[in-house]
Specification:
The complex is a heterodimer of chains A (150) and B (406). Chain A has 150 residues and is α+β, with helices and mostly antiparallel strands. Chain A has a single domain, classed as Sufe protein. Chain: A, CATH 3.90.1010. Chain A has five helices and four strands; from the N terminus they run H-H-E-E-E-H-H-H-E. In chain A, strand 1 and strand 2 form a beta hairpin. The longest helix of chain A has 18 residues. The relative contact order of chain A is 0.22. With 406 residues, chain B is of the alpha/beta class. Chain B has two domains: 137 residues, Aspartate Aminotransferase, domain 1 (Alpha-Beta Complex); 256 residues, Type I PLP-dependent aspartate aminotransferase-like (Major domain) (Aspartate Aminotransferase, domain 2), CATH 3.40.640.10. In chain B, the strands form five sheets. Chain B has a seven-stranded mixed β-sheet with strand order 4-10-9-8-7-5-6, sandwiched between helices. A four-stranded antiparallel β-sheet of chain B has the order 13-14-17-16, covered by helices on one side. Classes of the chains: A alpha+beta (150), B alpha/beta (406). At the A-B interface, helix 2, helix 3 and helix 5 of A face helix 12 of B.
Chain lengths: 150, 406
């Protein structure tokens, strides 16, 4: 097991140092908390979704570990331009990947950036870190205030 | 290697285990202590040789199980220096013990406006049961603050005490910070206003001698698993008069003298609080764990752990970006720390990849984390079986964390 190649890939470390979309969206149409009671991490996800159901902006706030921060960074980048249905589908694909059940190719995640999480399933205690922002995103889409990894 | 760790290394076979290709460096005793062979064997023996229920059968096996079970109660009594063995109630652990006090003594005694004083460094298990009690009775929680070292500010604690204070609930040792609280002084101050004192001794019993008569505390709770014993078993100590006056919590078998559909007469303490078949093997294992610790002696344990605490604190503080959280003048060998720009979860994972087991998180003390404005800490806790080499491995792995993450 090599943690630097499986878990802490350079891309993840880069987003940890310089997270993307790490900001508030004051006029967000959708937002929700993602809570991991195990470690106390608490993310807020913001999205702006137009009448055509297309996500025009996405962001997150609060601090967490490198895995959760990188995941939230990449997720918010990938969400822009997607419809709500596509976002739900992304969630399922990502969840499968973190369970080690991905199909093997990464076409579903567009730019392929999410593939950096393909080794997370080998670290079960970190899967919740990777998926925290995604649960919050799904809650926001469903109109709930809080999502919990437990 | 320190004499104590060398002397007992063979008692802990799990220390021979390899983790991720490295020898196991177990620095998570504050979460749960490793179990020595005598404890493992006593639990196995209980299942293999004494597999019978206690206080029930007239047959030989039941008699032997009951004898072993009752002997453990006497072992705990001596260990805590309780006045009588009936003051020792077996529970499933510290959390259960505190909840029993909240739900029996608390519900039957406290009224709206009564006050419970907690310290800011309590474990969630010594906060939440009291909040639940407040919801039922209308009593109120007051929190005694801590300073930047993680020490209870005694003047402010004393200023919170008044004629409305009914209970002070504090931990003897903070699981997140390592701070040793001046429990004796706390008890004197609390009793002066007529309040009772509950001591959460979960983190203390493996590090310090605990003498309930000397402390004069009214309730004390601890778990076997932090004392090198099995999980799922613990102790509630309470002064006998309190146990006598408190209503029972669980109803069922073993806690009664007689039952009709019209009326039940409860058994005497401690049985009044021990409904149902208890964790018999666990209680026997706890007794054996106490014998084990006592045979090592708290002088030797204290000396050994002080040495490791100083070494680890000095070495970690020297690393760039490392900050210790909890620097009380009186503390046990728990070293909580953070590294600039690195989340404790990431520290924990990288340390694990080097075979070093620590706890990363809020340690069930979110108010402590809020007090220090951090989401979590990495916590290395040292015990009887740890060595100077373990400190060196920890320090090496922390350097590795910085190399990977920064």
């Amino acid at each position: 097991m090599n943690i630097s190649t499986e878990l802490y890939q350079q891309t993840i470390l880069e987003y940890n140092r310089n997270p993307r979309n790490f900001r508030l969206i004051p006029d967000a149409t959708h937002q929700a908390h993602g809570l991991n009671p195990l470690c106390g991490d608490d993310y807020t996800i913001y999205m702006k979704i137009g009448a055509d159901d297309v996500i025009t902006d996405a962001s997150f706030q609060e601090n967490g570990c490198a895995i959760s921060k990188a995941s939230a960074s990449i997720m918010t980048m990938e969400l822009v331009g997607k419809t709500k249905d596509q976002a739900h589908a992304m969630f399922t694909e990502f969840q499968n990947m973190t369970k080690g059940e991905a199909s093997g190719n990464c076409d579903h995640c567009g730019s392929g950036k999410l593939c950096v999480f393909s080794g997370v399933w080998k670290y079960p205690e970190r899967v919740k870190c990777a998926i925290l922002a995604w649960h919050a995103m799904q809650s926001a889409l469903n109109g709930n205030e809080t999502a919990c990894t437990e | 290697m320190s004499t104590l760790a060398r002397q007992i290394a063979a008692d802990f076979p799990i220390l021979g285990k390899k983790v991720n290709g490295h020898p196991l460096t177990y620095l998570d005793t504050a979460a749960t202590a490793l179990k020595p062979l005598p404890v493992i064997e006593s639990v196995t023996h209980a299942h293999r040789e004494l597999s019978a229920n206690v206080h029930r059968g007239v047959h030989q096996l039941s008699r032997e199980a009951t004898d072993a079970f009752d002997r453990s109660r006497e072992t705990v009594q001596k260990f805590l220096n309780a006045f009588r063995s009936e003051e020792i109630v077996f529970t499933s652990g510290t959390t259960a013990s505190i909840n029993i006090v909240a739900n029996t003594w608390g519900r039957s005694t406290l009224k709206a406006g009564d006050e419970i004083v907690l310290s800011h460094m309590e474990h969630h298990s010594n906060i939440v049961p009291w909040q639940m009690l407040c919801q039922v009775t209308g009593c109120v929680i007051k929190v005694a603050p801590i300073n930047d070292r993680g020490e209870l500010i005694m003047e402010e604690f004393k200023a919170l005490l008044n004629e409305r204070t009914r209970l002070v609930a504090v931990n003897y040792v903070s699981n997140a910070l390592g701070t040793i609280n001046p429990v004796k002084e706390i008890v004197v101050a609390a009793h002066a206003v007529g309040a009772l004192v509950l001591v959460d001794a979960a983190q203390a019993v493996a590090c310090l001698p605990v003498d309930v008569q000397d402390l004069d505390c009214d309730f004390l709770a601890f778990s076997a698993h932090k004392l090198f014993g099995p999980t799922g078993v613990g102790v509630l100590y309470a002064k006998y008069a309190l146990l006598k006056s408190m209503p029972p919590y669980f109803g069922g078998g073993d806690m009664i003298l007689s039952v009709t559909f019209e009326k039940t007469i409860y058994n005497e303490p401690p049985y009044k609080f021990e409904a149902g078949t208890p964790n018999i093997a666990g209680v026997i294992g706890l007794g054996r764990a106490i014998e084990y610790v006592t045979s090592l002696g708290f002088d030797a344990i204290g000396q050994h752990e002080k040495m490791l605490l100083k070494l680890a604190s000095d070495e970690l503080s020297r690393i760039e970006g490392v900050r210790l959280i909890g620097t009380a003048r009186e503390k046990v060998s728990i070293v909580s720390f953070v590294i600039d720009q690195v989340h404790p979860h990431d520290i924990g994972s990288i340390l694990d990849s080097e075979g070093v087991a620590i706890r990363a998180g809020h340690h069930c003390t979110q108010p402590v984390m809020a007090r220090f404005c951090i989401p979590a800490t990495a916590r290395a806790s040292f015990s009887i079986y740890n060595t100077e080499e373990d400190v060196a491995r920890l320090v090496g792995a922390v350097h590795q964390v910085r190399k990977v993450m920064l």
